[in-house]
Hints:
By secondary structure, the protein is α+β, with helices and mostly antiparallel strands. It contains 10 helices and 23 strands.
Amino acid sequence: MAERSTAAVDVADNSGDEPLTASADKAEQTTADGVAKTEELDTPAREEPADTAETGTHVSPGTSSPPELHSGHKLARRYRLEECVTRLDGFSSWRAVDEKLRRAVGVHLLPADHPRARSVLAAARSSALLGDPRFVQVLDAVEENDLVYVVHEWLPDATELTALLAAGPLEAHDAYQMVSQVSYAMAAAHREGLSHLRLTPSAVLRTSTGQWRIRGLAVNAALRGITSDTPQRTDAEAIGALLYASLTQRWPYENDAYGLSGLPKDVGLIAPDQVRAGVHRGLAELAMRALANDGATASRQEPPCTTPEELVKAIGEMPKIRPPEPAFTAPPEYQRTTYQQGTYGRPAAPGVTQPVLAPPAPLQSRTGKALKWAVSALLIAALGLGSWQLADALMDRGNSGSSETTHTTDGGADKDDKKPAKPLTIEDAKEYVAKGDAQAPGDVAKTYDDDGASYWRTKSFVDGPEMVIKPGVGIVYDLGSEQEVSAASIGLRYDGDHTTVSLYASDSLSPSSVDGLKRIGPKTTTASKSASVEAGKPVKTRYVLVWLTALPKAGQDGYSQAGYKQGITNVKFTG
């Protein structure tokens, strides 16, 4: 099987088919992204457990064999199958290409006579109607030519929680963001009558912008025939397990699962801060409240959270956890240059005091005296000649002033002294990344190609208009040499809400920080598709940073999801 991204979206993995309190099946090992290994493609589907009483979840066994398809096969003359990532229990999951929209998608396939085909179609269509961007979206659900297939988003820039935990536990702020966003999303889904029932670490993804998204809402459980008598309790306990694992890098049950070690045998459910030192106490308390069973909880001060809505309420009562402060690196000590010590580039040996050079002795010889007299005579002659020329010029000016009168129009001198604005040429540009991942570094040249249809754009953010997860996004432009920059006009792709733009004089194409850069003109806020910045006094610089700190809200277009985002079409500087 060809190598694939660890962010394969909504793949029907076979890891953790047991309930959260059951053991992971050792016979079914999974890859880091929760996708079944290659060997499973040639093995028959296994029988699922008929009843899992620990959480009230019921699993119905499949009987049909998976459709015999191959890479290159097209569905609806549009979706071309590329790679089979899972073949399990009568259905298969593929990475595919939507040739109409030229984008990668995921596809679940199963025979139309499969005992769970009807429930899969119903779950997929219900999930698609939710339309919540916090969930991986179902794009199509079709029954055609004895096949049932579900098409969904594929997020190549996202990373599974499974892969993140393989590197270690999450920071407190990251764990807080994960449990907050997942709880709010699942509470919204349950209000619409939808549940997940397979909310495992491989079902939670973090995008390159830091947003958390959930894949497989209702569909993953329907593919396996998983149901629950208490769906809200099942999803709430699953969120608690995700938070527990994020804080401790351990699975909160005795058995290993999802690449994580379980808790020690016969000790029961112990608090996260007893598993690992330094765990945030408020988050540890929240995880224990969500993991309560039958009304009992290891936290004796607070009642258990048995629904995602109760988790949302508990999170709202907690103080917000701020991101960690960036580490400050002290600047190196000032080093005196060698020319100040009189060595002219030759370093002195350690511990050796530099000799102070004595000034040369004055000229005392006969030749020296003669030279001094000659220099003095030349200076006297030069002073006399200058005085004579000055007097002659003053006399000429007085004579001309008696016969002619000069008239000066008020403001004429100011108009002559004011230089007309001239356009500055942009030689090169580079996206500036202050924190996190880049936005679209390959498109920066489109912002100064005089083509209004081409553009560089940001990712789509959940929070706004003021940027929260990043201090800002922007592009540094190279003018080729130092120029006096007095104004800039920036063409924007989206209007609405407001866009905040600042201009800075940078010391290079990759400044170390925006802090300390000299601002050019005032901060500008606009609600239209253009922004102008004018400096009261021109600033001399070679590099100019266009810095966006607030973005408008826009709908989905092309490959970009709805959210707070902006694009730059044309940038022009004048001096």
